[in-house]
Amino acid sequence: MARAPVWPLYDVTVQGFPPITYQAATRGKALSMAYGDYGILDDRIKFGAFLRIARARRRHDVPADDHYGPVRRQYGVDPTVGQRVRLQHEGDWSGREGTVLFPRSPMCHVLVLVDGENEPVRVHPMNVVLLSASVQDTGAGVGNG
After folding, report:
1. Which tens digits make up the pLDDT trace of 63-77?
2. Structural domain contains residue 3
3. Residues 77 and 107 both lie in one domain
4. Is 145 inside a domain boundary?
């Protein structure tokens, strides 16, 4: 199975709010994710109007707070954005490998882009086996490309 591409990071800033980091296949997808989040505050805004108040800028590093603090504290698992993992105890997903992604908010799961898939999955921290090679180690680091 082909290795999943590593999606770039984008800082999306909406007028009047600090930037939020999204990891998405494209800039448009990052803006779409931000639109979904912003809809919690204003469910009447149309996407076109949102685009007039939002900006997405490519980010070339992982934020210092990678939002995996709860996973480290609760489960003792230390995932790194861009790290390769293998899933276990996940039914049909068991044995499959993928790449740890940046979650846009703190979570008690590990966000993984499984090789050959287009959408990330949330995996219980005890069901990921951290592999030694990260995407950064292979020269295809986060934000490259």
Report:
1. 999 999 999 999 999
2. no
3. yes
4. no
* φ and ψ at residue 20, rounded to 5 degrees: -125, 135
Show the domain range for 134: 69-138
Closest-CA residue to 1 (of 124, 76, 97): 97
pTM over 0.90? The answer is no
Given a cut of 90, whether residue 3 has pLDDT beyond it is no
Q: What is the domain-level CATH number for residue 86?
A: 2.30.30.30
b vs e for 46-78, b when ≥16 Cβ sit within 10 Å of the residue's Cβ?
A: eeeebeeebebeebeebeeebbbeebeeebebe
104/73 same-domain check: yes
Given this model, what pLDDT does residue 89 score? 96
Tokens 């939020």 locate to 20
Position 139 confidence tier, pLDDT thresholds 50, 70, 90: very low
Evaluate whether 1 touches 96 at the Cβ level (below 8 Å): yes
